[in-house]
């Protein structure tokens, strides 16, 4: 049987097989923003009261009457209707970048809530590497402190990831909240990078913490959140190639066939 190991970073990933090494080149786009201090988590498994979840929940600046507010109201209304395929579609006449931004923030919050529920089970000791399956390891890289792809424990990687996304959301240059201010030219590239990185948290949870998710009664929350994520990426063509889903490819294929 041919065995292989994949090491995924945000600059390059190398896949070695018996015949010839194959190199996957990742999109090297990074936002030029400082990385803020990350709010430490407490060691509670409660889905509703985790301290890190409360501190890290980042609503997009969506005041009543603004486009962001209206889009969020639309998304919440359609989500209650039961059709995830309908939820992910761009509302008629709306700006696509605004729709991507609103949903990116919502997915960030979903992922943060889910991961916040199992943080006491994800430690540098239990998860010394940021992996999905053993064949897929993710390395962290940014423009500030880790300019080279760096191996680190899963919780450390996820802390850097959440802080990076939070800083992006808070950056008015990247995520303008005022009416009439356009999104930057590189916004679509940045969005794809964020969605790709946030997917890795889902992959880690499914591959390493699914039994805990079931024990906590959060299986339906995880599956619904991830299916919503998958359908949104599929609808808006945010995946970068057929290998984007890696270890969860079969699950994703199943989700794409149903609604």
UniProtKB/TrEMBL annotation:
It comes from the Eukaryota. Zn(2+) binds at residues 122, 127, 204, 209. InterPro entries: MOB_kinase_act_fam, MOB_kinase_act_sf. Keywords: Metal-binding, Zinc. Pfam families: Mob1_phocein (PF03637). Gene3D superfamilies: MOB kinase activator. This is Putative maintenance of ploidy protein mob1.
